[in-house]
Amino acid sequence: MTTALADPTSPVPETAPVARSGHRRTWVARLRAAVLGLLGLVGVAGLWEGYKAVGPEEGVLVGENRVLPRTTDLAMPHVWDMVQRLFEPVTSLGDAEPLWRVVLDASVVSLGIATVGWLVGTSVGLLLAVLMQRVRIAEWGLLPWIVLSQTVPLIAFAPVVRSWGSRIEIAGWEWPSWLSVAVIASYLAFFPVAVGALKGLQSPDRIHTELLRTYAASATDTLRKVRIPAAVPYLLPALRLGAASAVIGTVVAEVSTGYLDGVGRLLVSYAGQASGDPAKAWAPIFGAIGLGLVAAGFVALLGALMRNYRRGEAV
Amino acid sequence: MSPTTERAARVAAPVLVGVLGLAVWQLLVSVLGVSEYLLPSPSEIWAELGENSQAIREAAWITGGNALAGLVFGAVLGVVLAALAGWARWFDGMLAPVVASVAVVPIVALAPVLNSMYGADSEYGRRAIAALAAFVPVFVNTLRGLRQTTPLHRDLMSTYAASGWQTFRALTLPSAAPYVLTGIRVATSLAVISALVAEYFGGPRGGLGSFISTSAATSAYARAWAYVAAAILLGLGAYLVTVLLERLVQHRLPTGNPR
Amino acid sequence: MQDAVRIEGVSKTFVTRSGQVHALADVSLTVGEGEFVSLIGPSGCGKSTLMRLVADLEQPTAGTVEVFGKTARKARVDQDYGIAFQQAGLLPWRTVAANIALPLEIHGVGRRERRSRVAELAEMVGLSDFADHHPDQLSGGMQQRVAIARALAERPRLLLMDEPFGALDEMTRERMQSELARITAETGAAVVFVTHSIPEAVFLSDRVVVMSPRPGRITSVITTGIGRDTARDEALRESPAFFEKVTEVRAALHGAPVRSPALEGR
User: Fold this and answer.
1) Count of CB pairs separated by less than 8 Å, A with C
2) Which domain holds residue C127?
3) How confident is the model at residue C154 (pLDDT cuts 50, 70, 90)?
4) What confidence score (pLDDT) does residue A12 get?
5) Is the pLDDT assigned to residue A64 strictly greater than 80?
6) Domain count of chain C?
7) Which of A34, B22, B95, B196 has the most beta carbons within 10 angstroms of its beta carbon?
């Protein structure tokens, strides 16, 4: 559910291979990748339809346990029904909006909340990483807790935060419910960023820090000119992980705090209507998938903008 | 700082931070009077843990069981598909974008429809979520591990005229094993988190996640926090078990360094 | 005339897990203004440590290190020396020009002045056409030239070099030696040059300081007698005087009796 592809406590730096092969070859390679990727998607849809066609209606049972799902249209709607349903109105009421529009609106709201959460979590994570890099005792005191907390289900406390919404009031300003969601999202985004950024800030070669020492450079200069640029290859995977965590945190927190305007709410309420309209339940899932892809795409764009900082280490 | 004091400080500092955190928390609640809706005191949570220990154990058993089932299935699937992808480039090309998407997408969003696919009283929907979440890191790490053999090593094996199986035994497996283990370690945490969170999306009651949300919904906040604490302990326990397993296997198996 | 470096009775002991290591024991050495001095010896003889003491990257356990009459620390803060290491140590995300400009940037030199100085330095090391390249697009020799340009950026009167050509192939190395000789002649800077190549030390230096390990100390100092006005070129490499000095340094390194009386500072 998160992008902890590798060990989240040791983000692997991505070294950008400098492409110097001919343009034509990269172009062919790209086309090939796109076609294969499309085939992969088709393969997933094919698996779905294939199982639906040959699988027993009551699903595959081992003893009392149903290990593979039922294949009725109610349980597993056809892929084309899911897509078609997107373009039909939300409800049977005359002036209802098309389903895709409602899902899109809710997804945009969720994306906004996730972005706030990601920004806050990233900022706090970066600041803490700088502190831990500068003050060794802070690193010793905090880092074990941060690493440990990455392995436990922190998100479990999301339902408890529901109570905050109605109880906090500061000088007439009421705590809006979306803020509870954003707090949870930022909380989840914070941890990978703090760990990744610290690894990155500590990554410069001794030769580089010593060079700055011979320049009698201040700690701030060393941070700006050497440590932060050197941290970029470590930071990008951490930011991507943070973005995925923020999206997951947002969706889960929307559900568990009962927030009404986001895509999380649609996930639950449309699933409740699945007995009458099974294809509808898939629309917010597509929305959630879109959220994750947009977040990852944004970080990938960030990575492309900073490609100079990702050149392989020169000797 | 001498090496001895440094070692002592490295142990003392996190302990101190932990104790300090607990003290500030208790102080916030009992002296400054932060309402228990916002934050029950550690002592209250501790009391709730004691009172509900039986129910908590049963709930942890259910959630843990789902996580374990998902982990086993997801890990097996991950290793098998990674082996296929390592063997056939076109298969890797097809699978790579799908896996990359699954990695960034909130998989728990599937929980409501999976519940209706399996039926309202089935735990298998959650197991499927846990399996999908566990699959990703195992697949990615295994594939990376399978690609660790260097051309130099492969050339060496050719000069020995080693068979495909011999090369696999002597070269590919030892260099890939640490990566598989790392993948499983990451997958364990994800499986527990996913199994737990999937319970927030409806389905049969009984696990830790559903107790957290029911307790919170009925304003029994201290009890909700007690279940949260149990969930954290479950996650920690699962993680420690895999770390131990990893150590054990690495001890038995003469493997290369994971780096 | 003020000496560039004055080292007196310096000892350096490192505390490690397995006990104390005496890297340097009672070392004294003086480097005059504009003088080229090489430190040579087997690994573990403390030649790099000695240079790092001058650079104020390490502090002596006993004794004093003076650079242009100041403490090493003051000299570092005042930027009285430039430095180059065995690895070029270029920042991979910066272009050649930006790498050369790094020390200038840190010391608040204005943009325009920075640009003209960088152009001048790139010209000096023959890399004008590569100013916009990144380090990963350069050969090892070119990277090391950038590092030398960077070390010269602030016109230091002292250059500290720790095996700067150690990672280069023999042909590139000889070319770089000639270039370094030309550049130091142009700038008139004093050089402390750490190396483990005997011909390199003799070719470049006014004096070669031979060191021995456990504990690190100076065993002999050999004056090459190759004047500053002698061209450092292929002819010099082939001359009998050059070979004679190479033999002399080799003998000193291998502990044979030293013929030259040029023993000082012990």
Assistant:
1) 67
2) 90-154
3) confident
4) 40
5) no
6) 2
7) B196
Domain coordinates of chain A in residue numbers? 78-310
Q: Which chains touch B (3 or more CB pairs under 8 A)?
A: A
Q: Of C154, C175, C208, which one is at a domain's C-terminal end?
A: C154
Q: Residue B97 and residue B89: Cα distance in Å, rounded?
A: 13
Say yes or no: C176 and C259 in one domain: yes
Q: What is the pLDDT of residue A60?
A: 80
Q: What share of chain A is helix, strand, coil (3-state, %, to 5)?
A: 70, 5, 25
The C-alpha atoms of residue B131 and residue B69 are separated, in whole angstroms, by 8
* C85 inside domain: no
Closest by CA to C35, choosing from C206, C213, C236, C256, is: C206
Q: Do A18 and C137 touch (CB under 8 A)?
A: yes
Backbone angles phi, psi at A264, to 5 degrees: -60, -40
Cα–Cα separations (whole angstroms), residue B174 to A126, A306, B77, B158, B181: 37, 36, 20, 18, 12
- Summarised one tens digit per residue, pLDDT across range C30-61 is 898 888 999 998 888 888 888 899 988 888 88
Cβ <8 Å between A6 and B189: no
User: What is the least distance, in Å, from the CA of B161 to any CA of chain A?
Assistant: 33
Other chains touching C, judged by 3 or more CB pairs under 8 Å: A
Q: Which residues of A touch B184 (CB under 8 A)?
A: none
Residues in C lying within 8 Å of A, measured between beta carbons: 55-57, 76-77, 79, 81, 83, 85, 87-93, 102-103, 105-107, 134-138, 140, 143, 167
Closest chain C residue by Cα to residue A221? C106
Considering the domain delimited by A78-310, tell me its CATH architecture. Orthogonal Bundle (1.10)
Q: What is the pLDDT of residues B90-108, one digit of tens each?
A: 888 888 888 888 888 888 8
Instruction: Report which secondary-structure segment, H or E, holds B45.
Output: helix B42-51
How close C211 comes to chain A (CA, Å)? 24
- Domain-terminating residue out of C104, C134, C154: C154
Give the per-residue pLDDT at B111.
Answer: 86
Mean pLDDT of A149-163: 73
A78 touches chain B (CB under 8 A): no
> Has residue B159 got a pLDDT over 70?
yes
Most confident of A71-85, A125-139, A259-273, C12-26: A125-139
Q: At A67, which helix (H) or strand (E)?
A: strand A65-68
C-alpha span between C72 and C70 (Å, rounded): 6
Which residues on C lie below 8 Å from A217 (Cβ)? 106
Q: Which residue has the tokens 């140590």?
A: C89
Residue A10: predicted pLDDT = 40
Query: Where along chain B do its domains lie?
Result: 1-34, 38-252
- The CATH code of the domain that includes C168 is 3.40.50.300
Task: Give the ipTM of the model, two decimals please.
Answer: 0.81
Residue A18 touches partner C, C-beta closer than 8 Å: yes
Q: Which CATH code, of 1.10.3720.10, 2.60.40.10, 3.40.50.1970, 2.60.120.280, is assigned to B38-252? A: 1.10.3720.10
What residues in B contact A157, CB-CB < 8 Å? 212, 225, 228
Q: Which residues pair with C14 in a beta bridge?
A: C21
Contact yes or no for A211 and C83 at CB 8 A: yes
Q: pLDDT (tens digit, 9 = 90+) per residue, B213-248?
A: 888 778 788 888 888 888 888 988 888 888 888 888
Distance from CA of C162 to the nearest CA of A (A): 12
Cα–Cα distance between B223 and B204 in angstroms, integer?
Answer: 20
Q: How far apart are CA A178 and CA A112, in angstroms?
A: 10
